[in-house]
Specification:
- The protein is mainly alpha-helical and 125 residues long.
- Helix content is 79%, strand content 0%.
- It has one domain.
- Helix 1 packs antiparallel against helix 3 and helix 3 packs antiparallel against helix 4.
- The longest helix is centred in the first third of the chain and has 24 residues.
- The two termini are 14 Å apart.
């Protein structure tokens, strides 16, 4: 079970690293082509802030447990990214972008699974 959770953590960390760095490095007009029209609802600073949160969350999914430095931060990182997905769901529902919800809900469930697994099922040691 522990190996499966580590794999899930690593895959989600890579996904959020890519998404976060894309938001940090691409200009708003290029980002709109990649991720959709929702970027029009946010300032450049807002988009970059989301990118920073995604990168920090991705690092938090793996590094604290990998280096055994405050491994509880892995749980907090997964919960933080879960909150980010809740925000994304609210945004897409308000914009009636229902196709985007599937990805957000799946990510929310996987992140919640990590939090529960690391807190209860296979706690950090």
């Amino acid at each position: 079970m522990n190996i499966l959770i580590w794999i899930l953590q690593a895959v989600l960390a890579l996904m959020f690293l890519m998404a976060g760095f894309m938001k940090l490095l691409k200009p708003k007009d290029q980002l709109k082509k990649k991720v959709g029209d929702w970027v029009e609802d946010f300032s450049v600073v807002g988009i970059k802030s989301i990118g920073v949160l995604e990168v920090l969350g991705a690092l938090g999914l793996v590094l604290p447990m990998a280096f055994n430095i405050l491994p509880v931060l892995t749980i907090w990182a997964s919960l933080g990214l879960t909150m980010t997905m809740i925000g994304a769901i609210i945004l897409h529902v308000s914009r009636k972008e229902y196709k985007m919800l599937v990805t957000n809900v799946v990510l929310l469930l996987l992140l919640s699974t990590i939090a529960i697994a690391r807190w209860i099922l296979v706690p950090f040691s």
